[in-house]
Amino acid sequence: MKKQIFLLFLFMTYMTFLSHAQLPKLKIGGKKDSTEVVSEPKAPKVKSAGGSNLMGKILTKTAMLAGSIGGSAFGMVSSTDNLEEVVMTGGVWHNLRNKSVGTVDMTFFGDWSSGGNMTMLSFTQKSRTGWTKIEGDITVNGKIIEGDNFGIYSSFEPANLSAPKEVAIKTSSGQEASFTIPAASQTFELLSINGQNENPSVDFSQDVTLELSLGENFDKNIPMFVQMTARVLGISTFYPVGYFEPSTTLVIPAAAFRNIGIDPTNDKLANYSSIYLEIARAEILKPTDLVGEISIPQLVVNYADGRSLNIVKGPEMNNGIKYKGTEKFQNGGMDYDFLKPNAFYSRPISQIKKAGVLSLSITGTTYVQGKTTSSSSSFSAGGTTYTSTTTTTTSASFPQIADELWEDVLESFYNDFTKIIESEYNTTFVPIDMITDSDAYQNLIPYSSDDENTTTEFQYSYKNTVALQKVLPFVPLTGGPNDVMKETGVNALFKIMLELKIAFDRGNPVMIPTLNVELLGVSNGDPNDVLASPTKYFQGEIVGDGVRYPAANLSKEDLDKVIRKSNLLDLFQRSIQELKTKELANPDYQTVWDNSFNR
């Protein structure tokens, strides 16, 4: 078991390095007030190819082994013979890059076919986060395909652009489903990069020009997706550069290469000395000839072309704008930590036209047990020694408060918060009911946390909003916040969480007020693709010093003293003003989105 845990740890570490869609978690700082635009220097060149590649191979093989035992062992993967329990995604990827590119997916998919095509199907659980293996047989064009231990099934074939894929599933319980994946129609050819055909030279501090030949059936509503490789600990994988309007001449601004979709932690470890640039067009389709009960939100038919580059100068990354520090008020200090991600994941504030509130809630603890201490004393009587032990446990409780009072607290907070946003961003808010009554929002409710007011915890949401899980089980099943924006006409959604937590300060119980805010934007990518990259204008956290509170009979005035709303909102407003100032000083945000497909 220890070996399995160790291997799974290595696997998860490896997956963390590959991840480019996750934004960094905020940490509370207590340092001197500071504002910075983070820009990391280009990683040094690898001294020799062998060492770096060897490390990549070791980690890749370890990850494969860990995946073969770790998923099921830790509940990440289940199996089923009931197709109604799963959601399936997948598609066909045409004109696969040459094996010599050496990206990590080629190792996982051992039958990689250079220039050929891959059919890939993946099954996830409807009710919770995790993958699912199908108990039974899956065939593509009559050939049984095998799945890996994460419920991912793949099949490789030589190039054939005209033939559709016929998929059939039959479970061990006798359930059957079948469908067709259409043939590719959005083909193209990459003719040159910066006027050069083979091994083109690229200076990433300059714009890069691509010359393309588009197929006769090209759809102007399908973007050109550009991505590039980078090596992290010797593992080569793709990171997104951006989505662009289809054209025979495509100019990618240098700013896009400074803002690729890579986590800042990975960028510090990344090597950009050997890069493969790939352009792709992905048709987002529904299956045809569908028979049987199975949920398939979308299929992808992808065509790609690319080149290995001769790097003259590598990219110097913009890792976003950070603003953090500590502010001293008369009634106590507050730590703040705000982040605007880089331009791939964060739209410019100027794009905000209409805002809404996705969730607003207050949560916290009402009871906590502190230290337990013991003291002993002994005495003798009649030749016998007796010992008396006294145990003392420190605890604190927060009186239960009527829902009506929480409603008043959140109503006051909502009114003051929205006034700040309307003033700072020159925008308006749609009524909360417009958000919560939407069909897309109703799809999210099953994945929310219920309100509670117990002896240990409380959670209360404003009006009809719900506190959403941090990770939805599967976005294509729910639609996610992006669908809420599409349906309601807003292009910015706030997630707001107030938290009160009991702690002890020198033996005295205190309440620590915390404010977490995220402002979500419309996804980056094809608007028809439910897996397009999520964006957020910013995220921030403010944590106040602990506040003493009465042991019983808390009034609204007492709650105001604990929550410190005026301090929280004052510091929040100054923080977003600072982010806005720093964003305006960094032209990358406007440049990237002015040239983006879904600007």
Automatic annotation (TrEMBL):
Signal sequence, renumbered to the chain: 1-21
Alphabetic keyword roster: Signal
Name of the protein described by the UniProt record: Uncharacterized protein
Organism: Algoriphagus aquimarinus
Lineage: Bacteria, Pseudomonadati, Bacteroidota, Cytophagia, Cytophagales
